[in-house]
Amino acid sequence: xxxxxxxxxxxxxxxxxxxxxxxxxxxxxxxxxxxxxxxxxxxxxxxxxxxxxxxxxxxxxxxxxxxxxxxxxxxxxxxxxxxxxxxxxxxxxxxxxxxxxxxxxxxxxxxxxxxxxxxxxxxxxxxxxxxxxxxxxxxxxxxxxxxxxxxxxxxxxxxxxxxxxxxxxxxxxxxxxxxxxxxxxxxxxxxxxxxxxxxxxxxxxxxxxxxxxxxxxxxxxxxxxxxxxxxx
Length: 232
Hints:
This protein is an alpha/beta fold. Helix content is about 40%, strand content about 10%. Helix 3 (about 60-70) packs across helix 5 (about 95-120) and helix 4 runs antiparallel to helix 5 (about 95-120). The longest helix has 24 residues, at about 95-120. It is globular, with a radius of gyration of 19 Å.
């Protein structure tokens, strides 16, 4: 991985037997495995041994993308991670060797979106940001919108993610019987999903379980109470 001090991007690390064992144990618990993988070799190695999702996938090629689509494998690109680590603001976050790896996967990031979209791969939303970089998470929306339509980017963070989690009957949609978790915006994200890059400008309210936890709109009063933290 990029943040690993000694690994090459081409390393697959786990053996066939190890990946199969991990996936077998996950299945016995009624769940599944996703894998950090960049290269076509690593992606196929994971899929062929039971993995159901690929995180990152920056170096994916067309034939591997088609293979993922045929197998119904989920892809969670995490482009904001590499964008943030390459920025001047976090210039000292990675040592020189890691910076070189980061530059390589960053160059291929947008291309990987186009390749996956063309092949019909199901994509979800994620970041994989580390430590203080987590504050950059929402900027993934704008990065993806360079290649994908706003609707596709929104679906990756809502209905697609709910399906990947096996929660499509409860999460990811605004429907009766679903979790009442909502953002109230002052723009239409179907027209301009990159607006979510700047929540301080465009998020009017945050609703969780039907209660308003945060509001910057006079027509939407906060109706939740936060418990005071006890110190003794």
